[in-house]
Specification:
The protein is about 35% helix and about 15% strand. By secondary structure, the chain is an alpha/beta fold. A 6-stranded parallel β-sheet has the order 5-6-7-8-9-10. Strands 1-4 form a two-stranded parallel ribbon. Strands 2-3 form a two-stranded antiparallel ribbon. The relative contact order is 0.15.
């Protein structure tokens, strides 16, 4: 049985590999060798192309591949009023020895939603290019809590009470959501790494050693994320992607969902959860038993990190395993993460990426029936 409301039986997280010519154009534009107007026209054309490829693959949810962003997170957050970049740098180590480096965020004024929202024009252009359901993806507000941390993020001269910052951040996000809705958006996704990092026993121990409380942190993440979508209209589908890190095919943490599943699945006010299940790092399917009957789990069984194409028989077998813990009608299929969380992208080709998306659609059609 197919779904008429997102998430769809065959879905995807959002970011897609940028074509080489667009990467080269971005570098030229950043160094002042390409006029911005010409670069933006190239972005528009590239988005039209990737939209067509998604439609040709049979997908019902269509994104712009996050082609207008250098980073899935930085570009959006810096669009909020009151948030800028610090002179300090942060560094996140990844599994293969690479490190993601960027400037920390800083709060230079009271935080709010700017007039017209953030990335509303991105959505409007995307929606104009597709006959399917346009999906916008944004970082969850919980992402501002760590690794940046309130001690380095919040200036006490602006926010003497750190709690007030988190309240106003949630309200700012809610304003962004309302702008998307006003533009016609009916499919919104929050990308949440910090909550998923609580799955790691090692990172939970680090939190405790630093004087923190993992349970309290998870509660705050849930509260922040829910504030962002509070009062949403009934026809706006919202999902959240729980991610263990994705940068140039590497990852940050391991651990099954058992540590967070009961609370996160039941308390997050969303329609579905994109869950990473592409490797043993994600644990087993047992945490799916906590999924409420009105919510959906999108099984990320196809890796966006590796070029090898998964076996459709193995995918169907794993879906059957998951269905032992939650009814099949509450399940969908997708790649485990985006293919390009930053503009550099993961270590596979555009052709390999498309074969994986087509595989997701083909297997979903076999399991749930072609719509």
């Amino acid at each position: 049985m197919q779904r008429t409301r997102p998430p769809f039986r065959a879905d995807h997280v959002g970011s897609l590999l940028r074509p080489k010519y667009l990467l080269e154009a971005r570098e030229q534009w950043q160094h002042g060798r390409l006029p911005e107007e010409e670069f933006r026209e190239m972005e528009d054309d590239a988005i039209r192309r990737i939209v067509q490829l998604q439609e040709d693959a049979g997908l019902q949810s269509i994104t712009d591949g996050e082609y207008r962003r250098a980073s899935w997170q930085q570009d959006f957050v810096l669009g909020l009023t009151g948030i800028g970049q610090s002179t300090e740098q942060f560094e996140i180590p990844f599994s293969g020895g690479q490190a993601f480096k960027a400037s920390k965020f800083s709060v230079n004024a009271r935080v709010s939603c700017p007039p017209g929202g953030v990335m509303r024009k991105h959505y409007e252009f995307l929606d104009s290019t597709t006959r399917e359901t346009a999906k916008i993806t944004i970082p969850a507000p919980a992402m501002l809590y760590s690794p940046f941390g309130e001690r380095t993020l919040i200036d006490p001269a602006i926010y003497p009470d750190a709690g007030q910052f988190w309240t106003e951040l949630g309200a700012a996000y809610n304003g962004v959501m309302q702008e998307f809705v006003a533009a016609g958006c009916r499919y919104l996704q929050l990308d949440d790494v910090n909550s998923c990092l609580q799955c790691s026993a090692e990172l939970r121990e680090q939190t405790i050693s630093a004087g923190g409380d993992p349970a309290a942190a998870l509660a705050q993440f849930i509260q922040l994320n829910n504030a962002a979508i509070a009062g949403r209209p009934s026809d706006l589908a919202v999902t959240v992607h729980l991610c263990r890190g994705n940068y140039r095919s590497e990852w940050v943490a391991s651990g099954g969902y058992e540590a967070i599943a009961e609370r996160y699945f039941t308390e997050m006010d969303v329609d579905g959860f994109f869950l990473e299940y592409d490797s043993e790092r994600a644990g087993d399917f047992a945490p799916l038993r906590f999924l409420p009957k009105n919510k959906v789990a999108v099984l990320g069984l196809v890796s966006s990190k590796t070029p090898e194409l998964e076996s459709r028989d193995d995918l169907k077998r794993r879906i059957e395993e998951a269905a032992k813990h939650v009814p099949l009608e509450q399940l969908c299929l997708s790649p485990q993460c985006g293919f390009a969380s930053t503009h550099e992208g993961n270590r596979l080709t555009e052709a390999q990426q498309m074969r994986k998306l087509e595989l997701v659609v083909d297997v979903a059609d076999e399991v749930w029936g072609r719509y």
